[in-house]
Amino acid sequence: MWTILIVLLIVWAALSILGFVVKGLLWLALIGIILFLATLVVGFFRQKAGKD
Fold it and tell me: Are 39 and 12 in contact (CB under 8 A)?
């Protein structure tokens, strides 16, 4: 599970960086940031639920 989350975080971070580097792809950066944060939140809640 953690492997998938880490891979997703890396992909979202790469998309965000690519979006900021290429000015025409600013929307890609915003989507990458949103998905990065969503993945962190999902991972945090799943980890917390697994410990209970």
Answer: yes
Q: What is the pLDDT of residues 26-52, one digit of tens each?
A: 888 788 889 889 988 988 888 887 776
**Which residue in 5, 4, 35, 30 sits closest to 18, CA to CA?**
30
Contacts of 36 (CB under 8 A, 6+ apart): 9, 12, 13, 16
- Rg (Cα) of the chain, in Å, rounded? 13
CB environment 8-40: b (16+ within 10 A), e (fewer):
bbeebeebbeebeeeeeeeebbeebbebbeebe
At residue 42, what is the residue type?
Answer: V
Does this model's pTM top 0.85?
no
